[in-house]
Amino acid sequence: MRRLLRAAGVADRLPTPKAEILACARLVERGEIDLAEYEATLKDRALRVFHRAAAKVLGLLDRRTNIIYVDPQIHDSRKLFITYHEVAHKILPWQKIIVTQEDQFTLSAECEDLFEAEANSGAADILFQCARFEDEARDYDLSIESALHLGNKYDSSGHAALRRFVERNHRSCLLMVLKQTLMEHSNGQRSYYVVYSIPSASFTDEFGDPLNLKFVNPGHLLGEILNNGGQGEIALDDLNGFSRTCAVQTFCNGFKTFLLIRSRQRRSSRNIVVFRS
């Protein structure tokens, strides 16, 4: 992806210039999908790519016409990621699939299919310009506000920015991505399902895997934080057996809830971002 960014002349521009990326990859983007018409065309050519009938198709790449189709009803930042996902499919030389079809599963962080995981990684590298995002993140305090601020600069979704911010961070931190369950306890508090967790390398080196949870319930300290204000502290034992106090911060984007756990910083950061009241 670095070669693509260089060939497209991205240089110091933010966010990544989509038009130049598409031109360099020799693709054309259409901001709409007429699935009925397109599916009929595919059937006429005896192609069977709509096998997941129950899944909503969000993006398509047709190598024959070099056209990317993106669902116009989704958020702009999501469209951008899907577009770059299809670009990655196109430029990776071993992925010679005539038509690719994307839905929520193939675009999810936990997708294990090799081609789709490679396309997801490639899309993130184009969006965040490889190491540029993580290099910039070094100057910011370890917080949800910092991740969202940087994500806005790179024109990414909050979800993608938080994942990249933690995954590539040189400091010790863990991101838990949660979905609220339908279970409401007698006290009105909620339980959360853990969609996935992603630690920084430093967090794994310091703590291993101390929070291998499938659900976060009100009886757990993290559940209490989620149900009562969204900020607090938790004590975790490091790999040497010492108890470390970690700060906990939460954020909800309307679809998922994000929980950031970080070791107490030993030094101040150059840039501190706060939410406006």
Task: Describe this protein's structure.
By secondary structure, the chain is of the alpha+beta class. It folds into two domains: 2-127, Arc Repressor Mutant, subunit A, CATH 1.10.10.2910; 140-263, Beta-Lactamase (2-Layer Sandwich). Helices cover 34% and strands 23% of the residues. The chain is built from ten helices and ten strands. The protein has helices at residues 2-7, 18-24, 35-44, 76-91, 114-127, 132-137, 144-153, 158-167, 201-207, 221-227; strands at residues 28-30, 59-62, 67-70, 99-102, 173-184, 190-199, 215-216, 231-237, 243-252, 257-263. The strands form two sheets. It has a six-stranded antiparallel β-sheet with strand order 7-6-5-10-9-8. Strands 1-3-2-4 form a four-stranded mixed β-sheet, with helices on one face. Helix 4 (76-91) packs across helix 5 (114-127). The protein is globular and about 55 Å long.
Helical fraction equals 25-40%
Radius of gyration: 21 Å
Percent strand: 15-25%
Give the helix tally: 10
Termini distance? 39 Å
Overall mean pLDDT stands at: 85
Low-pLDDT segments, ≥5 res? 42-54
Shape by Cα distribution: globular
The CATH architecture of the largest domain can be named as: Orthogonal Bundle
Secondary-structure element series: HHEHEEHEHHHHEEHEHEEE
**Tally of strands:** 10
Estimate nothing, just give the exact number of structural domains.
2
Helix-strand makeup class: alpha+beta
